[in-house]
Design brief:
By secondary structure, this protein is of the alpha+beta class. The chain has a 4-stranded antiparallel sheet. Helix 4 packs antiparallel against helix 5. The longest helix has 27 residues. The protein is rod-shaped. About 20% of the residues are buried.
Length: about 180
């Protein structure tokens, strides 16, 4: 590959490798303070506060689950109402046709069913799953992300990304190494 070709070839981003979770947290805070927004961090175990340090992304999931739960409740209640009041109105012992306390169990179960299925499907879709391949797998050192190393990646899609300036910035965080992530 010629030098000119290596400068114009697209990259996924730059990845810095750290030895400790404290170093990763410090780097994540500094990356966010520097204005980078398209970043991700990888650790072999959950690091408390890491999502906040990267600038937690806002999600629509709670609103979607709430809406699906409400739709489920209306569906369950409406289905029972239609069956007992509209379609088969049978007057048994002078009881009212619309006896709402009897509708509560099915309404509750439909609420839970719709909300849980929506949560499950939206988590899969919003996380882009299944994803058997990711560009960070091209970095040989990334194998240790599941055992004893900590990584932070700044994506080339970030508006502030400049290959040389971002590399110098990541090197100023004193990582073990900084690697180019090929797509």
């Amino acid at each position: 590959m010629t030098k000119e070709n290596s400068l114009t070839q697209p990259i996924y981003g730059l990845m810095a490798e750290f030895d400790t979770p404290e170093a990763l947290m410090d780097a994540a805070n500094r990356v966010r303070e520097a204005g980078y927004t398209r970043t991700d961090a990888y650790a072999p175990f959950p690091v408390h506060g890491l999502a906040h340090a990267l600038g937690e992304p806002r999600t629509k999931l709670p609103y979607l689950v709430l809406a699906a739960g409400a739709i489920g409740a209306l569906t369950g209640y409406g289905m029972q109402y239609f069956a007992t009041v509209v379609h088969w109105p049978i007057n048994v012992g002078g009881r009212p046709l619309h006896s709402w306390p009897a509708y509560i169990p099915v309404t509750f179960e439909m609420t839970v069913l719709f909300a849980s299925l929506t949560a499950f499907l939206c988590i899969i879709v919003l996380n882009g799953l299944p994803k058997p391949y990711h560009p960070v797998f091209n970095v040989p050192e990334f194998e240790r992300a599941s055992s004893d190393r900590f990584f932070i990646c700044v994506e080339a899609a970030d508006p502030k990304f400049d290959k040389e300036r971002t590399r110098h910035f990541l090197e100023s965080l004193e990582p073990r190494s900084v690697t180019v992530v090929e797509p």
